[in-house]
Automatic annotation (TrEMBL):
This is Chemotaxis protein methyltransferase. SUPFAM superfamilies: Chemotaxis receptor methyltransferase CheR, N-terminal domain, S-adenosyl-L-methionine-dependent methyltransferases. GO terms for biological process: methylation. It comes from Brumicola pallidula DSM 14239 = ACAM 615. SMART domains: MeTrc.
Amino acid sequence: MADERHEDHSLSTKEFKFVCEYVHSTTGILLNESKREMVYRRFSRIIRERKLDSFSDYCHLLQTKSEEEENYFINAITTNLTSFFREKHHFDYLQEHEIPKIIARENKAQAQKKSIRIWSSASSTGEEPYSIAITLLEAMQSQLPQWDVKILATDIDSNVLAKGAAGIYDNSRIEDLPKEIQQQYFIQGTGANSKNVKVSKQIRDLITFKQLNLLHEWPMKGLFDVIFCRNVIIYFDKPTQQELFARYYEYIKPGGLLILGHSENLGAYQKYFSNGGRTVFRKPALCNQVVEG
């Protein structure tokens, strides 16, 4: 059978190089030899789903029908590892320090409509933006109705965005959360859905899910109080990282935050930010400098 045949095929150096170059040119993500086994597994699944006999057949398909096939391929090959309140210290910092700081700023400004804008720029299946929304509700409590709160959740993968927008998760995804959080913000399924929970409407209403390739144009017009860019920068090469840090900087309000993953750092761009905590970086409140891209 064809499915069994191509399971035994090796991924040639030429084919692996093609995949790496294609992914880099379309997404900016840098794959190296350490990702070869991951590429092989996902490439094998793609071939099964597309009912092809070899890796080279699919490489040819990408070359000849690139525009039609690109979205499917990127969805299949990119990594989406996430969980609710992953790297919890970031959400603790948001609740204990940053949200009170924003509230005090807006109250002092006596704005007609007080607002908070947060961007989850690699939102995957939605656990990160939902964790942000829960953190906001926990921190603001009864004040929330007086505020205009919006969370933007973006990702390159349309499949994971659809899952995030649906807000339905296996029970196991929330079993480590405090019981009060589970009961207040998740609805237990019944019958055929008894093994699933759904994020409550009050949480979902705060979030807009949109597909976005970080290397393409960013259509957002306003600035953000906080940008989460966690565990995605590591997949880009150094020049692309520098370009992205410069763009993120321009989209952060003066005094706002950029939050990276635990294994990421700003490198040379550290000079444009101050440290706010573990991989939490603050843009100066008064910004006269121009960031070099």
